[in-house]
Amino acid sequence: MLEEVSKRGIMAHITRSTRANKILKTAAAALASAGLLTSLTACGLGGDSASQAQGDTVNIGVIYPKTGQYAEYGKMFQQGFDLAVEQVNAQGGVGGKKLGLKYFDTQSDAKQDAAVAPKIASDGSIIAVVGDYASPASAAASPTFQQAGLVHYGFNNSAPTFTDTGDHVWTPQIGQDVYQKANADIVAKTAKKIAVVYIENDWGKQAYEYFKQEAEKNGTQIVYESSYLADSTDLSPILIPARDAKPDAVVDIGYGPDGALVLNTLRDDLGYQGAFFGGQETKEFLELAGKNAEGSIITGSFSATGTKDKKAQEFVKEFKDKYGNNPGNFEVTAYQAIIDLAHAANKTEPTREGIQKALQTATDFPLYQGNGGTFKFNQQTRRADNIEPILLIVKNGKFQQYEG
Amino acid sequence: MIDTLFAGLIHGSAYALVAVGMSLIFGVTNVANFAQGSIVAAGMMVAWWLGGPLGLPIIVVIPVVALVCGIIGLLMNIGVIAPLEGRKPIAALLATIGIGQILDNGLQLIFGPQTRSFPEILPTHNLQAFGVRFGTSDIVMIIVAIISMLALWAFLKFGKAGQAIRATSQDPDAARQMGIPVASIRTLSFVIGAVLAGIAGIFVGLFNGNINPMNGGTIGMTAFVAATIGGLGSIPGAVVGGLALGLVEAVGVRAFGDGAHDLITFGALILILILRPQGLFGGAHDATSEPMTGTFLGATRPIELPRWANWVLAVLLLATPFFFNDYLSGIGIQATIYAIAAVGLTLISGSAGQTILGMAGPLAIGAYASALLVGTLHWPFLLALVASGVIAAVISTVLTFPVWKLSGHYVAIATIGLGAVTVAIIRLWEPLTRGSLGITGISYPNVFGAVLNTQQEMYLLNAVVLLVALWIVTRIRKSHVGHVFEAIGADQEAAEALSIRSGSYKALAYAIAALLGGLAGSLMAHEYTYIDPTMFNSTMSMTILTIIVLGGMNAPLGAVIGSIVLIGAPELLRPISDARILIYGLLLVIIILFRPQGLFAKKG
Prior knowledge:
Chain A is an alpha/beta fold.
């Protein structure tokens, strides 16, 4: 009995001493971590103030898909960016400083955009950001840039809500409302009854809504409609009923590879011979669709062979000298994005504030697309106001300007 | 209509051809080979190069493609799959995901990213029937599918090596005692499977017309669905499943439009699993093997930290937002979101041993619920956060309700389908969710009137939620119900003999995981301020599962470590941008090979 008690006592003692030990250890650890904290000079939760730009180079941050499913577009963008920066620097840079590019591969994936945005925002040498390819990915990064007072120039983002994030989010893209109005109008010229297919994503959905509005206004009858998923490989289940509805024309609102798939399925598999409106002004589309592409009509903003603007013709020549082929819409918008921002920096000063101020005040941004000349921004929507879409048609395996 | 059916049949035979190889490997090695689609893509790209730029005829293309893909299969088995033998097949499954990433990105590096047209090494549009043109290529494709099915069947039935393959698949130990060189037999079936995949690649290329080095993922996933519909492991089943899927898709898409494509494909998968779990051709006995359940090693234990260390870690986590810069906090935000989503899986996948491959579903529900509650109904953020967790748990539970009566790997497969179906419903339910347009301008988290909009503030919020999640999960693991989960995971039959209703407990464990997934989704919605259905894809589901596998299935803290590695690594690897995702896949494979129990667990 007594033994039992003393044993218990010893046990209690041991437990107590380990507990005391634990408390000591906890306290020591807490102290250590507190020490670590103070030595790291805590800066609170307010976020970084961007490090000040050092030296004589300022940069434009590029978020773009270098790898992944959209890598083809990333490649085209990069050609436009690189050429533009070369030219800006050859002409003396921006406000006496050299202009550089800092590329960040995001695969145009929202998760990666959101992750890399703070890194860009806290880099003081970056005075503006261009990209990304897809609007959802861009939109995931915008709030961070907005907060950092950094202009996010979404040159490829035609989604109507893109600029809603805040006053630092801009895009020179022609809105889909304008594009699709032009598209529906040209379709109405040749067809009374049409079948429409469109890509099932934020862009395709919105574009089709605008197209449908205008088509209804024009009295064009839509006899069949369906969306399709970007990764579908067999579209005959929707194109058979589209063909069987006997439309005067089939309209596809989508990108390049899927546009080629729609077209090839219609022509090769289903024997459809009628008019086709769709496709994309890329080498990829023309190669994929081959002969079938002949006569396809799309709306665009630029034609390398058709442009009458002097500086645009010069750009085409320089682009061809550097890369061996004519630039398309993706290359020219990328090129122009850098030229726009350099123009802005030269108007005011090559800083974040300077770019924002210039976008709000300058009215003479050089325009390479549409009819050329210059453009300005609508201060309510932060979109380019006066860029006219043009029509493009495939003739002899190439896109050419089409007068309608 | 007959033209649609006919087109569906042709498409279905392309599925069938890929599904045959998948079913063979599954039947023999019990490995669900998620790299199979990528091997198909490898065959397709090699065939493109031979037939296109080099201009070689099909008679040369076929043997070279077979050789190349055979070598890929051989290397894959010797280098990665064989060393994993004897471990739970979930290890091999995840290794195949890593291999798939290496192959996909390797192909893109080698061949360039653009979509291109496949050379017409066989005429593709020279014939016509029912108003649909097709080609010699399609006829040959169907014949190849049927011949490879018959040849495999004859080989397995009568060939000496074939009989050895079957013996191995039925009972590897008994086969070994009979003197069958089990290792070489497994290698052989991997090589045959890879050769079949390569040849399938040629015909899929001819059929699709437009090809891209990244096509492998989609091809593999649809073939997997086809093989499951036919009955995993059954070769004739794979052919029938492929044809059936082709027909169902054609008819369904014709009726509802291609926007409903995913819903039709994965809806068909779930329907078949509910009505006939073993698939059309699978024998009832197949349903009892459980290759996708269990942890790497049954006996792994999480590394137990003393209590003071846990407190220190918690304090450290809460302190990091105060001295991390924006970039580090940004990565911290991503890592904590994924850790919150993954930590619940330690209950359902770790303890109860049920692999979940569709966690993107609950995340999507949580994200949309929260965005709508705050945006449309003007609920305060914190209330919406909690509510979206609850909503995600309730909806996920209702959706998965019929699944728990299934056994073994069929539950895991069903969760793939449920994840996809959830997102497809969100996409189609436009009046509520705005469908593909996504929801923009979601407000930043607002906690008691303070808008959290710096990276550090949002990171701190996530860290707090993560600590709560870790606390909940740890408490549950130590409670009675936690031990019940473990009993089910350790030996489901024994647990049921003790009248534990394993299905109900798995549903409960899954509901908890879904609740935490919903919280993660809500945080994601308010921190990205934008959501759309494409964000919640199968890659997200795989990432979440991989996180706890890396960290240690039984270790809640492992979820944190796993997500730091998986979310942080792509950022760390940023300087080598071209090969970034490739190296990432390689890392995954290496960790599985050399630390199979997970980073934060030790062998028992």
